[in-house]
Design goal:
- This protein folds into two domains: about 240 residues, 3-Layer(aba) Sandwich (Aspartate Aminotransferase, domain 2), CATH 3.40.640.10; about 90 residues, Alpha-Beta Complex (Aspartate Aminotransferase, domain 1), CATH 3.90.1150.
- The protein has 13 helices and eleven strands.
- The strands form two sheets. It has a seven-stranded mixed β-sheet, sandwiched between helices. Strands 8-9-11-10 form a four-stranded antiparallel β-sheet, with helices on one face.
- Bound molecules: pyridoxal-5'-phosphate.
Length: about 350
């Protein structure tokens, strides 16, 4: 049975969080002489620490109650908070399936937490048999699953098997879910008290600069995320940028449709490019390809000011290509035709 208080570090269970006078005063009008701000200017006031307006809007767009939403300064902040809440440095462990998003490992190292890296199989799926013993290891407190996975691009199956058979917390990172056309696991929060779903406005919503990461989780988990986060982790301009984007669904839908149709165009075009030896199926806004000599191809493209992600150290001879504008994609296709390997 999952028991949240057994998973949380003892110092976090008893932590007295920072509280400001504005946590006690609920109104919005008043003479604010409590926070040592400058009384003049337009950015002179601290932002809403709980980002209530953004959560309300997100709740409507994502169909998740506002009390089940936490916002971080990018999902990267939330990944770090998860280590700090659930993993005792030097003692507890976390687990992930590789190749995957690099910040799970970087954050583990920063927090002095051992990260067990189990390989995905040749279809980039979880091998449930080989992870069984790890699911029973009580030192493993946290599992990160990225779906659609970065850099492979595919949706991961069997996540519910992990949720059902693991008594720690499972973080499902859905940064690319908007491109996948499949349902978010956030619809199943009531079934899984050990589930945290991460999403972000950095990808399909076009707000990477505004650093708006989202966690959907039980109200109990949200309490601890709020306790541990820095009090004012989202700036007011960034909260406003999120509100503006969430208010304009048409822009989001149009950009999403363009990116998806460009992805189809690129997938078709890649089939005729001789240096590309394999194109992996993708549910994201990027495509993983295998080429004859990834380092050489990468460097030749860099010399033309076209920057791809060289993933050949994690998947042999692979490059990851983000879908750009139609013009950028055309430029890549013509550059590909001139590569000499
Ligand atoms: C799987 C995954 N999660 C999270 C992030 C970071 O998201 P954010 O910009 O919200 O920190 C990325 C960025 O590339 C990503 O690929």
């Amino acid at each position: 049975m999952f028991n949240l208080t057994k998973i949380i570090r003892p110092n976090i269970l008893t932590l007295e969080p920072y509280s400001s006078a504005r946590d006690e005063f609920k109104g919005s009008e008043g003479i604010f002489l409590d926070a040592n701000e400058n009384p003049f200017g337009s950015l002179n006031r601290y932002p809403d620490p709980l980002q209530k307006s953004v959560k309300q809007k997100l709740s409507e767009v994502k169909n998740v109650p506002a009390e089940n939403i936490f916002l971080g300064n990018g999902s990267d902040e939330i990944i770090d908070l998860c280590y700090r809440i659930f993993c005792e440095p030097g003692k507890d462990k976390a687990l992930t399936f590789v190749p995957t998003y690099g910040m799970y490992e970087v954050s583990a190292a920063i927090n002095n937490v051992e990260l067990i890296k189990l390989p995905l199989n040749s279809d980039f799926q979880i091998d449930t048999k080989s992870c069984k013993t790890y699911l029973k290891d009580t030192d493993v407190k946290l599992i990160f699953i990225c779906s659609p996975n970065n850099p492979t691009g595919n949706i991961i199956n069997n996540i519910e098997y992990i949720l059902e058979n693991f008594n720690g917390v499972v973080v499902v990172d859905e940064a690319y879910i908007d491109f996948a056309g499949s349902n978010s696991l956030s619809a199943k929060l009531d079934n899984y008290p050990n589930l945290i779903v991460l999403q972000t406005l950095s990808k399909a919503w076009g707000l990477a600069a505004a650093r708006m990461g989202i966690a959907f989780a039980s109200t109990e988990i949200i309490i601890y995320l709020n306790k541990v986060k820095p009090p004012y982790n989202m700036s007011s301009p960034n909260q406003q940028a999120a509100l503006n984007a969430l208010d304009d669904l048409e822009i989001y839908q149009n950009q999403l449709a363009t990116i998806l149709s460009e992805k189809e165009k690129m997938l078709n075009a890649f089939a005729d490019i001789s240096i590309i030896t394999k194109v992996y199926p993708t549910d994201a806004n990027f495509i993983l390809i295998k080429v004859k000599d990834a380092d050489k191809a990468y460097n030749q493209l860099i010399n033309k000011n076209i920057i791809l992600r060289n993933r050949s150290k994690v998947v042999a001879d692979c490059l990851r290509i983000t879908i750009g504008t139609p013009q950028e994609n055309e430029a890549l296709l013509s550059a590909f035709k001139n590569i000499q390997l």
